[in-house]
Amino acid sequence: MSSTFYSNDATLEEDAETTSLTQDYLPTLEETWSEQELQRCKKWIVDSGFKRISLQFPDSLLQHSVTIYGQLNGEIEAEFFILGDTSYGSCCVDEVAASHVDSDALIHFGQACLSRNTRLPVLYVFLHFCVKWEDYQEKIMNTFPCGDEKVIIFPDTAFYHAKEELLQQLAERTNVRVASLAVDDSVKANYLCWHVQDLESIDITQWNCLFIGEDDQTFFNLSLAIPAAKWFIYDPKRETLCPATPRTSSWFRRRYYYVEVCKDAQMIGIVMGTLTSSGYLDIAKRIQTLAKERGLRSILISVGKINPAKLANFSDVDCFVLIGCPQNNVFNSRDFYKPILTTFEVELALNPAWKDTIPDTYCVDFQELLPNGKFHREHDPEENLESDVSLITGRVRERNQRPNGAPAEAESALLERESGALVSNRVTEAFRERSWRGLDPALGQDEPARIVEGRSGIPVAYEEHKDERK
Alpha helices of 214-355 — where are they, by DSSP H? Predict the structure, then answer.
């Protein structure tokens, strides 16, 4: 695809990733909760008649959960439940945990990806970080001195409360816009969770984009999705405004290398990282279809929050693709034994419509790959694919394309006849051949064991307790 590919992953490991910063700051109660938010939650619950409400907190806000619970419980006649450890990412609405307590509504606190959900009413309570307006105006004047520069401001969720003030401070500038967050269905997002007004009538490549927030995964994903003329980031906590170039060549080289890994793969693991984002089942089915058309095996994996230990159990999988919200930063982790790809990277690898094409922008939202999405491309499944050369191994890749509509059983039987051995090409057979496949309960086959007292004491002098009933 490009001359920037490397066949040695060690070369890519030498490039330090600086796209995100680790923030250890714990927001205060005043930055999390206020009387105004209490009344807003009360009105929402009372007007809708909710009786069982889950309160979802990220780890950084759990210290305030009891205080907020007490105030809500004292003001409203309803049952409240605190959700701490979420099923997937803390930015996603955890409908799975809420269903365990039979909640009919959920209040989400802190950073949110605003992935669309359809089964549970949700109210978002964002953080309220302060902005020093004198410093803000001074930085804007120094960065955009002419006054007629085209600027689109993207406030992060923690600064969204100051959206109107951000625009009023620059009232004398005519070419300044502030993007809105798609908090509910009344606002339709056109860039991740943001909505830019009259986007169709402007050329985004001629505009400067200013992000109000920290240099984190949210900014990185947004800058990948928007091909702006220049990107700037203003961090009110550090009082800095500077140009940003997050779309580094080293990051793209590493991701395109994983695209080549996916082309060489024989089995792809589809990891479910969300159960609330709209279209997550559709994109899983699409990846399965693309893999089937190329003669590749795929397996659907759902293990909750993923980590290297969980995915290491699937040793037969050559690479994984994560279906999750755009805020997931697991793609930058180097701790996993096998590469983890985005849905867009799998699309580049398996969809022949993207052959010999390098996109101008990057897609971090899998909904854009579905029909009517910006990056959706149709292809002919019956088109004969030409063999090509792997940029990793240097070997010729044979295209074992399955005929359209042929079932997996027919392919398995064909392999048996050609090889003369009982070999199955189904995914389950790869796991059946393992010597250890997990704990076998053997229900009904063994008699229940009696409970006896085991060892006690300290490691240098254990005391053994024998079963006197024998």
Answer: 217-225, 249-264, 280-293, 308-311, 343-350
